[in-house]
Amino acid sequence: MNIVILSRKATLYSTSRLAEAARQRGHDVSVINPLRCYMDITSHHPAIHYKGENLEGIDAVIPRIGASITFFGTAVVRQFEMMDVYSVNESVAISRSRDKLRSLQLLAKKGIGLPVTGFAHSTKFTEGLIKMVGGAPLVVKMIEGTQGIGVVLAETQQAAQSVIEAFRGLKANILVQEYIKEAKGSDIRCIVVGGKVVSAMLRKGPEGEFRSNLHRGGKAALVKITPEERSTATRAANIMGLNVAGVDLLRSNHGPVVMEVNSSPGLEGIEKATGKDIAGTIIEFIEKNAGPGKTRTRGKG
Fold first, then answer.
1. Largest Cα–Cα distance in the chain?
2. pLDDT tens string 117-174
């Protein structure tokens, strides 16, 4: 097969592992920076050009679209879909999962457990918003934030009001969520491929840090998840429409709750923590599922 990995940097661990796994299985692989693509969107002959060449004969695309380039990156994925190229994660699913508010609303609609979450535009109702999520301590999140950036733990009512008003003063869209104390600064990252949890790790933040992101100095270890956690992770990925996803769970007193569903989960931390060949599992999924006519949305929506 001829596989394209959409990534801005070929040397990134996840990108290089996917390329390595594909080549080991005899596939041709190209790493293409989506920002360097330009497209012909005419109805009869949709095409994508890269470095002066027309990209043709491609069987599958693996999008590794960073949050900062979601708009253009998903446009490139959508163009591949219009060309009837199979995408591991389709453009609509990527956009859906990247919008934190939209994704939480969709998960809640389907009965997935979530932390109590509030959203508002005006700071006039800050007090009511704080009360809605159970009061302080609480977590304030920028909707556009990634890797733990733009996430603040407000430990008192006054601190919560100040943080919310400061973010809104910067015109930032924010979510306010209950703080799951019993999680003790740890969460579970599940990797879902083709509707199955193929690996899971426990992430724990450093002493005094409530965020467990590995980019923030968190540590990872292999963890055994419960059937309920496994079901929650697979359902969350399915609701987003993602074939490959990283689902972040917290262990709360009332069962697993979903923090986020990631369409381009990093592979380094979880492969090293678990010893599992997740990149190879993703390539195997492509081998079984890629083909003309297999794209569900075909660039629609």
1. 60
2. 998 877 777 888 889 998 889 998 887 655 556 788 888 888 988 888 888 777 777 8
Rg from Cα positions in the chain: 20
Q: Which pair of tokens denotes residue 10?
A: 């070929």
Instruction: CATH number for 182-284: choose from 3.30.470.20, 3.40.50.2300, 3.90.1300.10, 3.50.50.60.
Output: 3.30.470.20
The closest of 94, 97, 37 to 63, measured between CA atoms, is: 94
24-79 residue pLDDT tens: 999 999 999 999 999 998 878 899 999 889 999 999 999 999 888 999 999 999 99
HSE value, Cβ hemisphere, 13 Å, CA-based, for 119: 12
The amino acid sitting at 135 is G
Residues 6 or more apart whose Cβ sits within 8 Å of residue 252:
113, 115, 180, 182, 183
Instruction: Report the Cα 232 to chain-centroid distance in Å.
Output: 15
- Residue 112 tokens, joined: 């997935």
Topology adopted by domain 2-96: Rossmann fold (3.40.50)
